[in-house]
Amino acid sequence: MPRLLTYNVHRCVGTDRQLDVARVAAVIAEHEPDIVCLQELDVGRARTGHVDQAGEIARRLSMAVRFNPAMRIEAEEYGDAILTPHPETLVKAGPLPTVRGVPGLEPRGAVWAQIGIDGARLNIVTTHLGLVPREQRLQAAALLSKDWLGHPDASGPTLLAGDFNATSITRPYQTLVRKFADCQRAFGRKPTLKTFPSGFPAIRIDHVFISPHIRVTGVSVPFSPLARIASDHLPLIVDFEIEH
């Protein structure tokens, strides 16, 4: 039964302000996921010691990695990644739309890979949406457009995972659940599990959305001492079956 873990790793800087890539990898490894979706990774950035965090976590987990730099400043990159030990191909990695004229907005992007598991080909997309509602609405619409999950190649079992910076009462969330089911609601998880902030999780902004081909068999959020300190978010774990 496949397991997906999505995790905003906060550039591997924990709530104790310590930079520790190994600690983040250890939180992930404990749960033995088949698919890992990561957000807020630094690659080659001075502020985190020029480490390729995506590559280093993948190396520690013995997984392949597909990284998309949402932001690139000369040799420094920052973005999201999909990791897996299973056969995979990159379908697309690129930017999502933003709004002009709002100072301080970070560029946002997404990465889409197809992964072979249990004789099926899964579409996995991970993203990290912006902080401004207008921007989030544009980005959610883009993810459902023909450029991404509205594309013919996106037919079949699909999971969209990441940090959406949006709770279930927001318009971007409502846009996405018109096409995909929220894994926690599909599983009947009550109360829903929160992921942020990691020390005292109070809100639900990390989500996994699923196509009708996916049946959720478990949802969990690790709350170990290590998970609570390794990042400002907790990981969200989804166990599922693929309906052929």
Structure description:
The chain is built from six helices and twelve strands. A six-stranded mixed beta sheet has the order 3-4-2-1-12-11. Strands 5-6-7-8-10-9 form a six-stranded mixed beta sheet. The longest helix is centred in the middle third of the chain and has 12 residues, at 133-144. α1 (21-29) packs across α2. With 244 residues, it is α+β, with helices and mostly antiparallel strands. α3 (133-144) links the parallel β7 and β8.
**Counting H and I runs of at least 4 residues, what is the number of helices?**
6
Strand content: 35-45%
Biggest sheet overview: 6 strands, mixed
Q: What distance lies between the first and last C-alpha atoms, to the nearest angstrom?
A: 13 Å
Strand adjacency order, main sheet: 3-4-2-1-12-11
Overall pLDDT score: 96
Poorly predicted spans? none
